[in-house]
Every structure is written in structure tokens, then in C-alpha cells.
Design a protein that fits this description.
The chain has 755 residues and is of the alpha+beta class. 36% of the residues lie in helices and 18% in strands. A hairpin with a 2-residue loop joins strand 4 and strand 5. In the C-terminal section; belongs to the transpeptidase family. Pfam families: Transgly, Transpeptidase, UB2H.
Length: 755
Amino acid sequence: MRPLLGWAVKLGLVGLVLFAGFAVYLDAIVQEKFSGKRWTVPAKVYARPLELFVGQKLAKDDLLKEMDALGYRRESVANGPGAVAVSGNNVSLHSRGFQFYESAEQAQQVNVRFSGDYVASLTKADGKDLAVARLEPMLIGGLYPAHQEDRVLIKLDQVPAYLVETLVAVEDRDFFDHFGVSPKGIARAIWINASAGQLRQGGSTLTQQLVKNFYLTNERSLTRKITEAMMAVLLELHYDKREILEAYLNEVFLGQDGQRAVHGFGLASQYFFSQPLSELKLDQVALLVGMVKGPTYYNPRRNPERALNRRNMILDLLAEQGVVSPEEAAAAKARPLGVTQRGSMANGSFPAFLDLVKRQLRQDYRDEDLTEEGLRIFTSFDPILQLKAEEALAETFKRQAGRKGADEVEAGMVVTNPETGEIQALIGSRQARFAGFNRALDAVRPIGSLIKPAIYLTALERPSQYTLTTRVQDEPFSVKGQDGQVWKPQNYDREAHGSIYLYQGLAHSYNLSTAKLGLELGVPNVLKTLERLGVSRQWPAYPSMLLGAGVLTPMEVTGMYQTIASGGFNTPLRGIRSVLTAEGEPLKRYPYQIQQRFDAGAIYLLQNAMQRTMREGTGRSVYSQLPSSLTLAGKTGTSNDSRDSWFAGFSQDLLTVVWMGRDDNGPTPFTGATGALQAWTGFMRRADPLPLDMPMPDNVVLAWVDAATGQGSAQNCPGAVQMPYIRGSEPAPGAGCGIQAPVDSVMDWVKGWLE
């Protein structure tokens, strides 16, 4: 026996050394990860904050819609952060506060009174006037790492009442007494499982659960269980209970949102309730804690009855253990689950805009920075306008359903602020919430008649030769190219319109007069104008370019029209305003840039002609849905065989470009007016924009002219109208009245003016 005993001692010593070595190895792993950077946190992308001020054009319903999406609770009195009370035209809200790029916005109570669709007054809780109030921005998405984990990191002092007590009561009632492994808990689990004849309770402590989720795999084996227990003990040796509990609250898996894994109570609160964790009530806390046992099995969206029973069981347990009173538990059990619907603005997906944000960020940051460092990206995205754009597009497709080929038509849409170039809404597909090919950024298509404003702007920059009332000929012609081929353009209606005013060629989108004008100006000169408008693509100087054979994306078209809408000032389009670190430290701003590219007078005349497009030309159908008092400017565009339907138009505060077409470049049943213009009109009707009101530049004068002849006229003459001219190019004042119209081709225009 003595030799055997000797060998046993030796083997025991070897085993002890190996065990000690293994323990040292595990200890190094535990400390390295837990003391270092524990999680890779994706960048968070926020919408613009909604700013409230007196005189602001904002409908009460739009404010409430955004507050609902932000998870504000409708209550009788707004007496805490995240609460809102509505009484008639008055909205009382208690903002949550937020760390913005330049400063922290404090939580405060704000009273808003509406008059129609405007903010009539803004006061504090004490009744004093408030200059401006800013709500926290909506979280619209994130930039995720390859493993697709997401979480909102929280501190232990940010958790709501009852969360820690409930978690400990349900998952590990001896948490504050054991050393990482609970012999009592293991014994209790064995007894309960043996009594029930099935596995009903596990013996793992919260610390063991954290170790399993944080360090190990889901493998079921004795070796892994021993490793888990050892690491749990080591973790408790180095770190206090509060640190371990805080890590658990941030690590625990609580659901799956498509490819995104929802980790931690902070994100779960946003995902299921659209509210910050700190605002959750007892019943909501019980629901989330109940999901720890089985996030899929107890998912309240998929299995509401199962989740409700689990929540109520936990509330009964809290009452039994004295954590809450029986009355509190009964009141909590009487409440509905209160889970928000997926697809609301708060937890919806805006893939086209997020795609834009990623592309702009990658010019300045590495992918690792965007997916691991928890950057906070603040954008110009307007969720209210996005929702209205999506509704307008869906309504247009629904109305056109049944037309041959309509179901195969796709779409892209861009909405910006004309003054700043900030992108406020973006749609990359007729199915706006599905990620995929982003047509707003990547669909390179012939722009058709959208090029025409560039031709007329080139002419209007030469006031000694061209004015809005210069006569041009809309007659057939042909041009022989260097390759011997003959180019012979035609009007859409296959008719020639004779002698017309220059502005009529743009308003009615006549191809013959426009192409002839472009050839007189020189195709290279028109292409230079396009470049100044912001088009960077290099097109060959072929005559066909004058009628839109060149290709652009909807975003590039928006950049071109942005310069027109902003009075000749080029403002590069941008979707990002600023970037903060995960700790709230300012990192980078994306300032507003502007460069004057055109004379204000020439742009003013062009805008005047584009307004006439809406009043009497190809865009006139908008006023069947919009008030006639709303001044707008725009241009339709249709490519050959109606393969592309375009509309680009703007008000004082909104520029919107819509494209509709097929991905296979096949013909559609739409022109610019019957397709894209309908979606544009539907959006503008919902957005209720401000009328276009460009101040008259110093070098522009108004002159009275005869509507039929374009010659100077006295103000009181029949048919006299005022037209803008660059100073010095206006016709001489008329001596009298009674001049007869020499041609019939302009009578439609005359009738329009007289009406």
C-alpha cells in the first residue's frame, strides 16, 4: 500500500499544480477582459432633435406622433421625465434632457400652446416664457460589428426601482451572500427538480450566468461547468458585487431583432417599450426579468399570453418575498404588457438614410471605429418628414396598381432643406423599410427634361441676348453629327408650337425650342453650367445631352437643384451634423458650407420660369391637391420610352426629388407628370411647406409688358402683366394701349395670365 500511497500523493501534487496553473490561467483571462474594454459597442445614429419655439410651423399631431415614438407616456399631468399631457390645443411635456455636441440639455417641464399648425406660446412650468426647447433626438439605428451584438450601456445608479430586487429574487436570491457559487442554490435546485420529476430550476448564480455569457460558449459538459464555477469564484475575488451586477445588466441576452442581438436591459427597454430604462414601471421590470429565463420562449411580441403569465408569476413572487406589497403587485398585474409595436418610428429601420450615413462616415473613420467605439452620430434626419414621404410614395403606387407594368416600377426619393443642403428624408426603394439596392444613391439613370433648367440658366446669364420674353422658335430641325448620324428631336406631343416666349419652352418642356436654344448657346457651355450647379459627372458634348441623355442618380439631381433652390449658392448635401465619443466628448463637426456659383438675378428669373411650370406648364396638376396660394417651383423629367419618371421641385423650406423606373430599364406607364409628380405632390400635401419667397435681387426690375407681344406696355392696358428682367434688359415702356396679338400660338398663355 505504501508505494500506491506514494504514487497517489505524487499524482495529487501534480494534479494540484495543474489545477493551480489552470486557475492562474483562468484568473488572467477573467481580469484581462473584465478590467479592460468589456464590450464593443456599435455607433448610434440619431435623428435631428425637435426644437420648439414660438412661431414655429408645427402641427400638434406631428409633435405628439414624435413624442409617442420617443416613448413619452400619456398622463393626466406631466410630472416626470418622459411624460406628456394633452388638453385641447395645449401640450404639457417633461423632457428627458440629453447630451448634445455643444452642451447638455437639462430635463425640464415645457408647456406648448398651438394655434392652427403653429406654436403660439412656449412657457416653463412656472409660466415664464421660454425662447426654445429641444427634445432628445430619436435613435434611428446603429452601425453593427460582424457579430451583430447591440447594447445600450447603463450604470447601476440608472436602473429603475425594483429591477435589482426583482432580478435577485428570481434568478439568485443569495447573490449578495455567496462567493460566486451557491451550494444552497444548487441544493435547492436539486430538491425542486427531483420533487417535480423534471428540470424546473437551475443552480447557477448570477455570477455564473455572467461568466457563461461573457467568457464561455453554450456547450453543455461537466468540464465547462467546472470552468464556469472556477471563473465565477475568481471573478468575485477581484470585483465587488455592484460591478458584477452592473456587468450582468449590460451583458444578458434578451432578444433578437432580425440579425441584431439585443443585449442588456438598457437596449431591451428601448426595444420593447421605446423608453429609457430609468422610466420603467414595476410591471415592465417584471416582464424583462421574466425574459431572462427564455428570451425567445417569453418574447412578448411573439408569445404575449406566455409572457403575461410569466410576468404575473414574478409579481406574485415579489409579493411573497416582501419586495412589494400585495396591492402593488395586483395593480401591476392589472396592467397590459405595454409593448410597442415593431415598425414604429422609434424602432423602425431607415436603411437608405443609414446607408448614406455610413458612406459619409467612412471618409473620416475606420470601420472598427464605427462598429466598436460607441460613437454617437447626430444627423439631419427628420422622422416626421420621412414618414410622410413613405406614405406619399405608398399612396402613389396603390393608386397606380393595376396599370400595366406598374407593379415592376421602383422608386427613389430625396428630401433636403434648400438653405442648408441637409438631407431630411431618403427612400431607396418602393419598400422603404427594406435594406437592399439604394436607388436614391446608386440608380444611375437618364435625367430627361430635368436638364432643361441648366440650358435656360445659361441663356438668362446673357441678359443682353435672352430674357424670359425673348422669342424662340419651336420648330422641327435636324443636326448631322460627326459620325454622319442625324439627330432630329421631337416634342412629346409630336407637335411644333411656333414662335413662343423663352420661358414657355421651359414651362411646357418643349424639346424643339429647348434643343435649338442649347445649340445656339453651345453644348460645352451648357455642360459648364451643369458643373457649376454641382454635377461632377463628365458628359460628352453631344446634342442629345440637351434633352437629358446624360445619367445621374437622384442624389446627384438633388445636388444640382439644390443650387437653383438656394438662390445660386452651392451647398454640398450632408446628412451628418456632428459626432460625439461614447463618453459624450465632442469629436467632429460637419459645418454648413456655401459657395456662390451664379448671379442672383439669373437664378431669380429661372425660378420665376419654374414657378410658371407649376402654374401653367407640365406641373400644373399639383394645384388640384395643393392650395393655389402656395408658390412652388419645379420641373418634370421623362426619358425615352417613358423609362424614367422624374420630378424635382421646391418650396421655401423643402426640396424634393422623386425618381420612378424599372431596375431592368424597361418602359413604364408613367411620364414625369403622371408618376413622380404624383408622389411629390402627395408628399408636399402632407408636409405642408412654406411658399417660395425669394427676395428680388438688386439687379432685377419689374416691367409692364403686353402679354401677347412681350413689348412694353402701360400698366393700365388690357392684358398688361409684370415680368422680371435683369436691369437694362427690360423692354422700353409702352406708349399706349390697343396693340393686337400678331400670333395665336401664345393665346393659351395670355388666358392663363388673365385668369
